[in-house]
Design a protein that fits this description.
By secondary structure, the chain is mainly beta. It has helices at about 15-25, 70-75; strands spanning about 1-5, 10-15, 25-35, 40-45, 55-60, 60-65, 80-85, 90-95. About 15% of the residues lie in helices and about 40% in strands.
């Protein structure tokens, strides 16, 4: 699961395996370890305790929670994302990760074999 922070927005991108795990267990998380034992954890969790996507931060963890029914429907569908309510802070986007179409030769190599096929790369049907 990828985490992107920009301005006052937070985006999680999930691979096919992440989405399957989220669908099966209602939870997926990832950890970034720092020297000296510090870490940042980000967690996506399905729960009936919220009505829209929400995010909290504390004790080295970013926790994103989404309503269980919305999470289950999204994980089992072709829908790309779940988004927080308009005006929510931070703005939240939870999306299925698509394979990259443009590789930057100066960037580190990407392993997106488990990403979803990019719709822009699929042939059009008449």
């Amino acid at each position: 699961m990828k985490l992107r922070l920009q301005g006052n927005s937070l985006r999680l991108r999930l691979s096919q395996k992440d989405v399957a795990r989220f669908h099966d267990t209602g939870r997926v998380d990832a950890v970034l370890a720092f020297p000296g034992g510090a870490s940042l954890t980000w967690t996506l969790e399905a729960t009936d305790a919220v009505r829209t996507a929400t995010a909290t931060h504390g004790n080295g963890e970013i926790r994103v929670r989404v309503p269980s029914a919305i999470a289950s429907a999204w994980a089992a569908s072709n829908d790309v994302g779940i988004y927080s309510a308009a005006g929510a802070e931070p703005a939240i986007a939870i999306e299925k990760d698509f394979q990259c179409l443009h590789n930057d030769p100066s960037a580190p190599p990407r392993d997106d074999a488990d990403a979803y096929p990019n719709p822009a790369a699929l042939p059009e049907t008449a």
